[in-house]
Amino acid sequence: MVIQWFPGHMAKATREVKEKLKLVDIVFELVDARCPLSSHNMYLDEVVKDKKKIIIFNKIDLCDRTETAKWKNYFEKKGYTVVYTDAKNSNNLNKVIDKAKEELAEKIARQVAKGIKPRAIRSMVIGVPNVGKSTFINKLIKKNVANTANKPGVTKKQQWLKLNKDIELLDTPGILMPKFDNQEIGKKLSLIGSIKDDITPLDDVSLYLIELLKQSYLENMNNLYKIDVTADGENVFIMEKIADKRFKKIGGDYDYDSTIKLLIQDFRTQKFGLITLDNYNDMINEEVSDEN
Ligand code: GDP
């Protein structure tokens, strides 16, 4: 079974985002700091074209900083501005505003030189599901706008929220449907909750999680489950070790179903500690070998 998307939904969502994009000067693309490349929309540049973009590595509090820093460098080399945030705890949010102003400083200066009084910068948040878009918007607003109570009579369609005198933010994010041409990226998107569990083969996802942990965070997995597996152990064998520790056998067989759920749940509740799923060296080597 492979993870599949419904092209109809995808096309509609993309159309909606494209419409909204026409209104803005700058786009804040939120990605999950635990897999900045997998949760980044590869087609962003095509969709957004000439707008300024800032890539925000959100959930920075959950990632393995050393690995994620390599991705920051990777995106910066491609010309993006990258900002780390922890939206849940309102960390570093105003840095995004500062960077947006920096990005648009030249354009504003040109307008001023022509004698045009510049209007406020218009921005919007986009990203795949569950990267923290709503949290980001809400926290940014709380930090910057004293009173955001809805005024009676104002239709709650789309509103520009004034972050300060220079910058406005669209109050609803643009949801990008995850696009991937590679099942491994799909499995990571499933782990971070961007793809719904009911369309995902969770057995494959959990075996893939074991593979990733085995390669980069073996100690974390061994410590959590009090097992002693090595990096050359087969994934199914490791799953059986975990099953053996945690669940009673059913009819003489390991309780795979419970173990699959446990692994995914443990990842989503950070039981393995600070983890980055996108391994820089692995993915870049793949990119290079794809090009050859
Ligand atoms: P959206 O689908 O992109 O709008 O994502 P939400 O804003 O609904 O957030 C998804 C989940 O991620 C929620 O449980 C948030 O509390 C959580 N979340 C959002 N930002 C952060 C963050 O920076 N750090 C952590 N640890 N959790 C976050």
From TrEMBL:
Chief localization: cytoplasm
Signal sequence residues: none
Pfam families named in the record: MMR_HSR1
GO molecular function, one term: GTPase activity
Compartments, record wording: Cytoplasm
Protein function: Required for a late step of 50S ribosomal subunit assembly. Has GTPase activity.
Protein family membership: Belongs to the TRAFAC class YlqF/YawG GTPase family. MTG1 subfamily.
Full protein name: Ribosome biogenesis GTPase A
Originating gene: ylqF
